[in-house]
Amino acid sequence: MMEKQTKIVFMGTPDFAVAALEALNEMFTVVAVVTQPDRPAGRGQKLTPPPVKIAAQKMQLPVLQPQKINTQEFIAKLAALGPDYIVTAAFGRLLPPEILQIPHLAPLNIHASLLPAYRGAAPIQRAIMNGEKETGITIMLMDEGMDTGDIILQEAIPIGDFDTAGTLHDKLAELGAKLIIRAIKAINKGNFTRKKQVDSLATYAAPVQKKEAKICWNRDAVMIHNLVRSLNPWPGAYTELNGRRLKIWEGMPTADQGAPCGSVLAVEKDAIVVAAGKGAYRITKLQLQGKRAMDTGDFLRGYPIKTGTILGNPADI
User: Which of 19, 44, 251, 284 sees the fewest Cβ atoms within 10 Å?
Assistant: First the structure.
């Protein structure tokens, strides 16, 4: 099959899916883009299109935004497009069997983990939160389960000690775009293998809840570092300073020791060192409630902090 003759229906919603859509559109023929409806966002709750819709419109691709995907009307509309592949990337909904059966060749999903590890909604954040040293992209054949289908391609990448959910997201989005092209070319040529997932090895990446963002200073400093990285850029790990929320955006664990947990052990020119349950955490970028995010050095010039100051409250410690 000639590459431009390959017809794709793409289904995705957030920024993560944009790179894959752009790559697919360049290599094949994207006959439709399906994404979530526009949602209210920001302080003004203005109706805002998802990133995939914005990207699709720039490429002048037809966009479908159904409220429900399991209606006979919508299923018939997809079937009439006659796609060779349906490709999903962070679409946000499980596809019903009637849609999985539509593509002539395969329904494929781009997932941001090395399946069967981290099935579910938040594989990037959970991998960092748990201190993993590598993750990757899996291209899988979709079935009715959540990220349970056979694996077509996988590629691992390292997670750096200072990778955040934001930096890792961008690396994986780029890798996903490359692998989906490779997978479709291989399937078109009949030169591919499929590997069943070992369900007993599966782990689940539950959606991140805002309540998880509060820092407990009695934890190991490395765990605090992983929490901070995993919640950057959203929703941001936080503690409290004099009754105001203080988001911690960047830092590093150190071997310093001190007590009580949450107390400021040292105030440096460009950092605040805070006692943890094991070791300490050196904060280098933060954001006080009502203020912009800034390097700690800039913050300290306008908001001096003394050694011994307690961050958080007794419930956190």
Answer: 44
